[in-house]
Every structure is written in C-alpha cells, then in structure tokens.
Amino acid sequence: NRSSTRRQLGNDACRTGNPIDDCWRCDPDWETNRKVLADCVIGFGRNAVGGRDGNLYVVTNSENDDPVNPIPGMLRYGVIQEEPLWIIFDQDMVINLKEELIMNSHKTIDGRGHNIQIADGPCITIQNVSNIIIHNIYIHGCVPGGNAIVRDSTKHYGLRGISDGDGISIFAARDVWIDHCTLAACHDGLIDAVSGSTSITISNNYMFNHNEVMLMGHSDDFLDDKNMQVTIAFNFFGENLVQRMPR
C-alpha cells in the first residue's frame, strides 16, 4: 500500500489534505527530487512509475516537429525511446504537433516549473504501452491527425489512420497516471480510455470549454472493457462542459 509508505516531509503548514499534492509539494527541493512524484499516485494507477527508473531527458526544441525522424531535444524524440525517461523542459513552450504524439512505455512527461502547452494540432496517444505519467501540461485545441507516417519507437514507424482528435487517447494501455493537467476545446474527448485499457488514475486535472469530456470504454459489447479499473479523483470539471463527466 503506497499510501502507508509515502514520504513524510514534515512541514504540516503546507499540507492541503490532498494526498497526492501533500506527498511532494512540501519539499523545497522538489525540482531536484522530481522522481518522488512517481511514489505519490493513488488509486488504480498506483503502479504507474513512468520513467522513474531512467534518466532525465530535457526538451529544448519546441519547433519543427518531425513525426518520422525527430531529433534529440524534441518532445517526440524523448517519448519514442526504448528506455525509461523522465522528460522535463528547459523553458516555457507551446508545442504544435504535426501528428499524434505516440508514446513508448516507461515515460514521464513532467511540465512542472514551466508553462508547457500542447496545442492546435494532434495530441497525445498512449497505445499498447504501460507505465505512463503525464503531469502539469496544458492540452487544448486538439484535432484529428493521420493518413500519415508516424514513428512510435526507435525501431518502428508506420501509416496511421485518422485519429479522433482527443486530448489524451488511452488505447489498450495500462498503468497510466494523468495528473494536474489542464484540458480544453478538443475535437473529440479530453481524456478517453478504451479498448481494454486499465489501471488508470486521472487526478487533479482542470477541464473546461468542451462537449464530450471523458469516455471510459468505447462499447458495451467490448468485453475487455468490463474489467477496466479507473480512479477519477480531485478533478475540477469547469465551465462550459456539456457531457461525459465521465461516461
């Protein structure tokens, strides 16, 4: 039970009662100790360690996204690597992706300390992978991509069909934690988990200006989705939302 072994930081004055935030925010050296975040997740996604066991990777280039041959310093280059990586950013960035950002397993995208936006293009796809953490990213204006070649690992690229235009699409994936992200105004869902995805925690996110907010399971006839386990906690369902909170 991670909740009984979580780090005790000792500064009661900064505690909020939110067990996720209280796990790391009281540490004045949180920026040095970033990977402690992986021990703070609660709920069904509690085994999502992301890139905790790998190196830090710093995103330095927010322009000229190349879906097939990304270069070092780009976000896409980091998320397709085979080894675990804890991905951070060296400055504020607005990243306009040309195609879906297809993540490989054992990755953390950690936007803390900067204003990091993924906006006005295809957005994040977590498909057939495990151990993903996405923290403190503003995701908005997502649109469909596809009918294009996209790389999903250092060893493979292929033709992608048309994507739905979700902010974060979780497809046949497990051990996923989405925390402290802001999501708005995407073409389809803000966060959709389908096709047998499970062991997911969606926490502390702020969602606004959207119709179909969050979908858990794409069909009542898809039997694998009957075993889906998702924890949805401490989220703020904000202004101008219409439906699926969640469906």
Descriptive notes:
This protein has one domain: Single-stranded right-handed beta-helix, Pectin lyase-like (Pectate Lyase C-like, 3 Solenoid). The N terminus is likely disordered. The chain is globular, with a radius of gyration of 17 Å. A hairpin with a 5-residue loop joins strand 10 and strand 11. The chain is built from three helices and 22 strands. The strands form five sheets. Strands 1-2-5-8-13-16-20 form a seven-stranded parallel sheet. A six-stranded parallel sheet has the order 3-6-9-14-17-21, with no helix packed on it. A five-stranded parallel sheet has the order 4-7-12-15-19, with no helix packed on it. With 247 residues, it is mainly beta. It is 6% helix and 34% strand.
Outline the fold blueprint.
Blueprint: H1 2-5, H2 19-24, E1 55-59, H3 75-79, E2 85-89, E3 93-95, E4 101-102, E5 107-110, E6 116-119, E7 124-127, E8 130-135, E9 138-140, E10 148-151, E11 157-160, E12 168-171, E13 174-179, E14 182-184, E15 191-194, E16 198-203, E17 206-208, E18 210-212, E19 214-216, E20 230-233, E21 236-237, E22 241-243
Parallel strand pairs: 1-2, 2-5, 3-6, 4-7, 5-8, 6-9, 7-12, 8-13, 9-14, 12-15, 13-16, 14-17, 15-19, 16-20, 17-21, 18-22
Antiparallel strand pairs: 10-11
